[in-house]
From TrEMBL:
<dbReference type="InterPro" id="IPR012938">
    <property type="entry name" value="Glc/Sorbosone_DH"/>
</dbReference>
<keyword id="KW-0732">Signal</keyword>
<dbReference type="InterPro" id="IPR011042">
    <property type="entry name" value="6-blade_b-propeller_TolB-like"/>
</dbReference>
<dbReference type="Pfam" id="PF07995">
    <property type="entry name" value="GSDH"/>
</dbReference>
<feature type="domain" description="Glucose/Sorbosone dehydrogenase">
    <location>
        <begin position="154"/>
        <end position="446"/>
    </location>
</feature>
<feature type="signal peptide">
    <location>
        <begin position="1"/>
        <end position="21"/>
    </location>
</feature>
<protein>
    <submittedName>
        <fullName>PQQ-dependent sugar dehydrogenase</fullName>
    </submittedName>
</protein>
<dbReference type="InterPro" id="IPR011041">
    <property type="entry name" value="Quinoprot_gluc/sorb_DH_b-prop"/>
</dbReference>
């Protein structure tokens, strides 16, 4: 057990489908004087065809993922029963995916069907699902022999896995083999006292052309530090050891609550989330003070040689306010992640009662997530409190179930297990059970405990370039996959 995660002395570590695609174009006309559904230039008109789609055999709260493709490149995905109007004449293919509701898997009785649409007529097709089967997940080891691996990532379109070791090294797993030489070793710069260490890294969106990447670590004096490095021009498996410090956030006193995540958002800006500075109930009041960078989500522009403040960051209106601040009121956001839907998922470790996940559009700057006024939706130290202008979590759980510190992960967007796409995965330091939920239409649904105890102490999640999800334990990298 590594001391910085020891539940007895720290708390992270604070204590120590519904998928609706945009409707495609209507495709080509049916060969008459004008396009389907429009008046032709000759003065004649064409009555378009229609396709009625019926979905049966699913629970009422479950969305199907049915693709309709036809002439002229027509493509649309529908969730349940629907009528597609103004269709060009021709043959359409209706393809249905298997649907997961919790751990119940429903399979279509007919995976693919063809139907002909003619002008002025309505055709119909029924997609029927059979009885539910139990769906299970497991984890399999893809790398071992690592020392305290606590983060994993990869550049876009790169099959290698880059694994961050807390002591200050970044290792590469290539074709299932852990390379002996580190990609980067900054152990001489890194403090590992308490919860400190090299905590994450992020590849520049233009890494393929500029070779830049960024690391988040605690320096010898405990300061949270963001530095830029560059890959060697001679060897793509080795980085230049000389880096440039871009940002330091003093973190005096306590060695816990360092946050730890570094990630580029869909806007190309670099986000990071330092913890509140440690101690019980944020004694320095950092999380609500805009003069401090602790207890915040920060957003900076690193496209130049240093870093700049994005022009659309929330304005710094008070004396001493820091313009890097994107959001306030966080306690110890050990991990956050961006989803392809444009949302950010922030898993914030609680104090002594509740763990929480905040989900908001990534464009939502200026929010206050409540700490240290609120722990989840619970007022801190009082029966009631002023929650005006606070953004509550979309998901929380109490410590009554044995949890103590949430370890946030990712929304699965890989291809290996299509049934779990759109589900956010997380675990807890003290339970180590793989869990997930779906955030749909502003509401958390399908909250599932996968009854899958992960072997060893879990430190973090990671995602590769293909958006497959990994779990990092004491010395192994495990990949989430379908149980056979």
């Amino acid at each position: 057990m590594i001391s910085f995660l020891r539940p007895a002395s720290c708390r992270l570590l604070g204590m120590c489908l519904l998928f609706l695609a945009a409707c495609g174009g209507n495709g080509s006309g049916d060969g008459a004087s004008g396009a389907a559904g429009s008046s032709g230039s000759s003065g004649g008109s064409v009555t378009a065809g229609a396709l009625s789609l019926s979905v049966t055999g699913l629970p009422t709260d479950t969305a199907a993922n049915v693709s309709v493709a036809g002439p002229g490149g027509f493509s649309r995905v529908v969730s349940r029963s629907d009528t597609l109007a103004n269709l060009a004449t021709g043959t359409y293919t209706v393809t249905a995916d298997r649907v997961l509701n919790g751990t119940s898997l429903y399979s279509p009785t007919n995976l693919s069907q063809s139907v002909t649409v003619t002008a002025g007529a309505s055709s119909a097709v029924t997609v029927a699902y059979g009885p539910a089967e139990t769906f299970r997940l497991t984890v399999s080891a893809v790398a071992s022999g690592l020392t305290a691996p606590i983060y994993l990532t990869a550049p876009a379109n790169d099959p290698r896995l880059f694994v961050v070791e807390r002591a200050g090294r970044i290792r590469i797993v290539r074709d299932g083999t852990l390379l002996s030489a580190p990609y980067l070793d900054i152990s001489a710069l890194t403090s590992t006292d308490g919860e400190r260490g090299l905590l994450s890294m992020a590849f520049d969106p233009a890494y393929a052309s500029n070779g830049r990447f960024y690391v988040y670590y605690t320096a010898a004096d405990g300061a949270i530090t963001v530095s830029r490095f560059q890959v060697s021009s001679a060897n793509p498996d080795v980085a230049n050891p000389s880096g440039t410090v871009l940002l330091t956030v003093p973190h005096p006193g306590a060695s816990n609550h360092n946050g730890g995540q570094l990630a580029f958002g869909p806007d190309g800006m670099l986000y990071l989330a330092p913890g509140d500075g440690g101690g019980s109930n944020d004694p320095a009041g950092n999380a609500q003070s805009k003069a401090s960078l602790l207890g915040k989500m920060l957003r900076i522009d690193v496209r130049g040689n240093g870093y700049a403040i994005p022009s659309d960051n929330p304005p710094a209106t008070g004396a001493g306010d820091r313009p890097e601040i994107w959001a306030v009121g966080l306690r110890n956001p050990w991990r956050f992640s961006f989803d392809m839907t444009g949302q950010i998922y922030i898993a914030d470790v609680g104090e002594s009662a509740r763990e929480e996940v905040n989900v908001v559009p990534a464009t939502s700057g200026g929010l206050n997530y409540g700490w240290d006024r609120m722990e989840g939706t619970l007022c801190v130290g009082a029966a009631t409190c002023d929650i005006t202008a606070l953004t509550p979590p979309v998901f929380e759980y109490t410590h009554a179930s044995g949890g103590c510190a949430i370890l946030g992960g990712y929304v699965y967007r890989g291809a290996a297990v299509p049934e779990i796409r759109g589900r956010y995965f997380y675990t807890d330091l003290c339970t180590g059970r793989l869990q997930s939920f779906v955030f749909r239409d502003g509401v958390v649904t399908e909250s599932v405990d996968w009854s899958l105890p992960i072997p060893g102490t879990v430190y973090s999640f990671g995602a590769d370039a293909a958006q497959e999800i990994y779990v990092l334990t004491a010395g192994e990298v495990l990949r989430i996959q379908r149980a056979q």
